[in-house]
Amino acid sequence: SKICNIDNNISGCSILEIGPGFGAITESLLKQGPKKLFAIEKDGRFKDNLNRIKQQYPNNFSFVIADALDFDFRPLYSKQLKIFSNLPYNISTKLLVKWLKTNISSANWSTLTLMFQKEVANRIISKNGTKNYGRLSILSELLSDATHKFDVPQICFKPKPKVISSIIHFKSLSTPRYTCNFHLLEKIVFLAFNERRKKIKNSLKSLDINISTI
């Protein structure tokens, strides 16, 4: 309920949820009366449970058994779309960057409310000049206002993980903070921060750009 209430009023909004599992967040969201909630779940073992939820909310809820990394989100995008997910940690950054990319030219989603491993969350919200500042910080800052909402301790999960999780809320910007070639920026920040001990001139050698002034 605490996760679902971050966005205040979702009544009448379109919701996308990744990895609903048993549907704890799903049911809490549906109780708030969204216009539509569409869920993507990779694990077919949850199909019966999701069908039970669909019987309760036949007009508001639908789902598909699919891999979110391969799914085409484009038909779902709108300026009113809110995305919620307790992301599997092994795909969390890939999906975040994928969603950020869609908002380069226009707002294709309104907000993201996502769970990350605390270490990753700290990198996302880090500010310039701090040790955690890097690729995820820059890309998130370019296209959204990202804020840390709260941590989720290990005792909230079964089985109990070894790490603490954090909830990050992203609010889409109407336009990027500054004009740039996003795809080139993504390559530059990946190379620049991938090996921090290297001179940046050496890190960027593989790029077909003039780095003579670096």
Structure description:
- The chain is α/β, with parallel strands linked by helices and 214 residues long.
- It is built from seven helices and seven strands.
- The chain has helices at 24-30, 47-56, 92-102, 118-125, 135-143, 182-194, 200-203; strands spanning 14-18, 36-41, 61-65, 81-86, 111-117, 144-152, 165-172.
- The chain has a seven-stranded mixed sheet.
- The longest helix is centred in the C-terminal third of the chain and has 13 residues, at 182-194.
- The chain is globular, with a radius of gyration of 19 Å.
- 30% of the residues are buried.
- The model has no long low-confidence stretch (mean pLDDT 88).
List its salient traits.
about 210 residues, alpha/beta, seven-stranded mixed β-sheet, about 20% strand
